[in-house]
Write a structure and sequence with these properties.
Blueprint lengths: L15 H20 L3 E2 L5 E3 H7 L5 H6 L1 E4 L5 E4 L4 H10 L8 E10 L11 E10 L4 H18 L5 E6 L3 H17 L6 H9 L1 H4 L8 H5 L10 H17 L4 E2 L13 E6 L8 E7 L3 H4 L7 E7 H11 L10 E5 L2 H17 L5 E3 L6 H10 L4 E5 L1 H6 L1 E6 L7 E4 H11 L3
Parallel strand pairs: 1-5, 7-8, 12-13, 12-14
Antiparallel strand pairs: 2-4, 3-4, 5-6, 6-11, 7-9, 9-10, 10-11, 14-15, 15-16
Helix pairs in contact: 1-5, 5-10
The structure holds adenosine-5'-triphosphate and magnesium ion.
Adenosine-5'-triphosphate binds next to strand 6, strand 10, strand 11 and helix 12.
Length: about 425
């Protein structure tokens, strides 16, 4: 026999037993987003490679070493999207969504990065992302954070920590950058290879390093605060006061940075201590410079993205009942006549009780085998139909998840009996 082919390293299947949890997560998030007037946009998974080079920037981990890039049959360089912001901005520009208007958009789907796979870090992973355009003030930044807080509430996740920081404006960062480079040069013996490489190109990004040996040196590094202008301070202050009044707790983390020039002011992350090193479940920020960098007129923009695998991992522990699944009814059908009648009966039940999940046994099998399948389906009740039941116009209803006695029900009362017992 030929050797069977397996999934690509770092890319995973979501199996049927896990998909209930994914649907719960996606359903709750999209409902919260809808309740704030956000609308879904769907972009292609492939984009021109230049889009990511121009948006994410050449001196980032993503563009330097993580992208899945290849030439298509025409010789165009294409890339599997490593994140959603670039494609969303591209689509919004291309379709004129940014002219004299505000937009609140969200998207969902797989992203691809050639990283070292480990718990919470995969090569194909899912994000739900939100991008807003045309709103330069701190009001929308605050709204986005309130949206995320409400999402955690809707998911039953109550121990995420909100970290907040401001990166000021590009000009404010220029002065800071010089101070930071001087500090790092004075401590160059403590820098790892990656950081030394970034010193010339992207020194802010060094602050974001996860290397524990650099921790103490980074903690003592100068902060941006001193270089912030009045407007940047007021911007952050508005957000903090809104969160205070709304009862959303946060910590200001001056080490929270993004390395890219198009970022401005607000950055935030939601983190958990329960996922080891991969503790960030949601990261967001303002990127007022990006649209212009991609060739458009300047447009204010702020957004966030959450990693769904990490949220699923949290939900598995924190909210296991979210994963509960199972049919309402499994029809155990004994013989050809019962099979036909049973399937038609199931149609009538679906007409009468919309939303009820009914599985008909197909593929035959002994009573024992059918009841075993019924049990495995997670169904609350088995409904038995055989020659005897066909003759006296009844069915047997057997509870599978409780110790209620089984009962024989006349067909004409079946809908009512089920409606009473399976009310939800
Ligand atoms: P990290 O610091 O964990 O590498 P990042 O800064 O690269 O994250 P973003 O690009 O901001 O991450 O993506 C937003 C979110 O998407 C992250 O907070 C995380 O939850 C999730 N995410 C990012 N990369 C991966 C990955 N390789 N596998 C699973 N989830 C990921
Ligand atoms: Mg990363």
């Amino acid at each position: 026999m030929a050797k069977s082919i397996q999934a690509i390293r770092g890319m995973h299947d979501v199996l049927p037993e896990q998909s209930a949890l994914w649907q719960f997560l996606e359903g709750r998030v999209s409902a919260v987003l809808a309740s704030y007037g956000y609308r879904e946009i769907r972009m292609p998974i492939l984009e021109m490679t230049d889009l990511f080079k121009r948006s994410i920037g050449e001196v980032t981990d993503i563009v330097e070493k993580e992208m899945y890039t290849f030439d298509d049959r025409n010789g165009d360089s294409l890339t599997l999207r490593p994140e959603g912001t670039a494609g969303c901005v591209r689509a919004a520009m291309e379709h004129g969504l940014l002219h004299n208007q505000t937009q609140r958009l969200w998207y969902q789907g797989p992203m691809f990065r050639h990283e070292r796979p480990q718990k919470g870090r995969y090569r194909q992973f899912q994000q739900i992302g939100v991008e807003t355009f045309g709103m330069p003030g701190p009001d929308i930044d605050a709204e986005l954070i309130l949206v995320t807080a409400r999402i955690w509430q809707a998911l039953g996740l109550d121990d995420l920590e909100l970290q907040l920081n401001t990166l000021g404006t590009a000009q404010e960062r220029a002065a800071y950058r010089a101070e930071l480079v001087a500090y790092f040069e004075a401590h160059s013996e403590l820098l790892d290879d990656d950081s030394r490489r970034r010193l010339g190109s992207n020194p802010l990004r060094i602050l974001d390093s996860k290397n524990p040996e650099m921790r103490a040196m980074l903690d003592a590094a100068p902060a941006l605060t001193r270089h912030l202008g009045e407007e940047s301070k007021a911007h952050l202050d508005f957000i903090c006061r809104t969160l205070d009044d709304a009862g959303v707790a946060y910590v200001i983390n001056p080490r929270l940075v993004r390395g890219l020039d198009y970022y401005s002011r607000t950055v935030f992350e939601w983190v958990t201590g329960r996922l080891g090193a991969q503790g960030t479940v949601c990261a967001g920020g303002r990127y007022d410079g990006l649209v212009e960098q991609l060739g458009g007129k300047p447009v204010a923009a702020v957004g966030f993205a959450m990693g769904l695998e990490r949220l699923v991992a949290l939900l598995e522990e924190a909210n296991p009942q979210a994963a509960a699944y199972g049919a309402d009814l499994y029809l155990v059908l004994d013989g050809d006549a019962a099979q036909r009648e049973g399937m038609v009966l199931a149609e009538r039940l679906r007409d009468a009780l919309p939303g009820l999940e009914i599985i008909c046994n197909c593929g035959g099998g002994s009573m024992k085998a059918q009841f075993k399948r019924a049990d495995r389906s997670g169904a609350h009740y088995a409904l038995l139909l055989g020659d005897r039941e066909l003759q006296d116009g009844r069915v047997v209803l057997k509870p599978l998840r409780s110790d209620e006695a089984q009962l024989s029900v006349e067909r004409e009362y079946l809908t009512r009996t089920l409606a009473e017992r399976l009310a939800r």
